[in-house]
Design brief:
By secondary structure, the protein is of the alpha+beta class. 32% of the residues lie in helices and 18% in strands. The longest helix is centred in the first third of the chain and has 15 residues.
Length: 248
């Protein structure tokens, strides 16, 4: 990474306040196509040529996938093993998440993998899957059943313990101490009078959302493989079937 003249911390990366420009936006501006293979090296090479930040670290919030990519690379250099191997050994295997991994090779065959689609201007379905040999901000392969096991760990704290989850749910703040609602990969908020934690995701034609209601020990997980589906809206509708609106 170039020296931007300002200290950028891990807290900046995971709370999207680093000012580092988003990798997907940069590649789109540079003329990359949606079906081009994008490697970790491609992303680092592009970042190395950046001359400045979007803003000074900690001054603003702006979602940047680059922060999670860099965090994943840093984790690999610190631990000596890839994020994929580390996550499997420390998190996924102990939680019996046998169908979950970070996908590091676009050509790797994954049993039962679902393709994704979008509709063109004529309404015809077309395949829409990403070609990535990078992860951190993307490329997590999982299932609804495995994510339910991940969700349950927020209550049992089998992996991580109290201190880990306290830090994970700590929201960021700007330099002027303005509080944010973004924690470490989780957006905190409320819905119909309930406390919520969750995150949505989108890549090519894949769409996801997990919406947690921690005080109710209740969560909604939605996976979709069509680009025009809105999992966040569907999550709210599903929650409405089970939770009475307390805001009325």
């Amino acid at each position: 990474m170039p020296n931007f003249g300002h200290t950028i911390t891990f807290n900046h990366l995971i709370h999207h306040t680093s000012g580092i420009r988003d990798q997907w936006s940069l590649q789109w501006l540079a003329g990359w196509r949606s079906d081009d293979l994008i490697t970790e090296k491609d992303i680092l090479d592009m970042l190395a040529r950046q001359k400045s930040l979007n803003f000074l670290p900690g001054e603003e919030y702006l979602y940047s996938n680059t922060g999670f990519t860099l965090a994943g690379i840093a984790g690999k250099r610190i631990t000596g093993v890839s994020l994929r191997d580390y996550a499997v050994s420390v998190f996924f295997k102990p939680l019996a998440m046998t169908n979950t991994h970070f996908h590091s090779d676009h050509s790797e065959i994954t049993p039962n993998r679902t393709s994704a689609y979008y509709k063109d201007d004529k309404g015809k379905l077309k395949i829409s899957i990403p070609f990535f040999d990078n992860y951190g901000a993307t490329s997590l392969f999982t299932t609804v059943g495995d994510l339910a096991k991940w969700d349950e760990n927020f209550y049992t704290k089998k992996i991580g313990g109290d201190a880990f989850f306290k830090l994970m749910l700590l929201t960021g703040e700007l330099n002027d101490q303005t509080a944010q609602n973004y924690a470490s990969g989780l957006i905190t908020g409320s819905y119909h009078g309930y406390k919520t934690e969750g995150h949505a995701g989108a890549d090519a034609g894949y769409r996801t959302n997990i919406l947690r209601f921690p005080d109710e020990h209740f969560s909604v997980i939605v996976f979709a493989n069509l680009a025009n589906i809105n999992p966040s809206l569907l999550s709210n509708k599903l929650a409405d079937l089970f939770l009475k609106d307390k805001s009325i």
